[in-house]
Structure formats: C-alpha cells, structure tokens
Amino acid sequence: MTHAYSYACRDCEGMEACPASVIAETRDEVWKLMGHHARIAHGENPEDWDQETRDYLDTLIKEVDV
Asked: Beta partners for 16?
C-alpha cells in the first residue's frame, strides 16, 4: 500500500458546500493544488493567507492509503 495526502475543501469551515477534493503523493503537491483551487473556485489569493489560516488548513490535510 502506498501513502498519499488528501484535502477536501468541504472540511474547511465555511466551505461545506464545496465538492472539491485532491489527493497527491506529497503534502507540497496538495498545497499547490489547494492554492490553485482557491484561486479558481473561490477567487482567493493563497499568498494572502496568514500563518493562522495556513496552520488551520494544514490540519485538514490527511494522510491516506492508496
């Protein structure tokens, strides 16, 4: 079994209606995909996220078996 990392936007407070989720081989890949999704789907600029927001989002990235 291989390990990967996942993020589901709906797990983020205030984003419960968003169906997007990502799975990638590394946490870094997930962060890049999260940023891409935030720009396209939510009109957010991930560069504007403060450290508190980044720390919170990091708790939503889960290790999964694939």
From this structure: none
Q: Which residues are registered as beta bridge partners of 4?
A: 64
Model pTM score: 0.92
* C-beta of residue 7 within 8 angstroms of C-beta of residue 61: yes
pLDDT in tens, the chain (66 residues): 899 999 999 999 999 999 999 999 999 999 999 999 999 999 999 999 999 999 999 999 999 999
Residue spans per domain, the chain: 3-65
Element spanning 43, H or E: none
For residue 50, the one-letter residue type is D
Angle, alpha carbons 62-44-28 (nearest 5°): 35
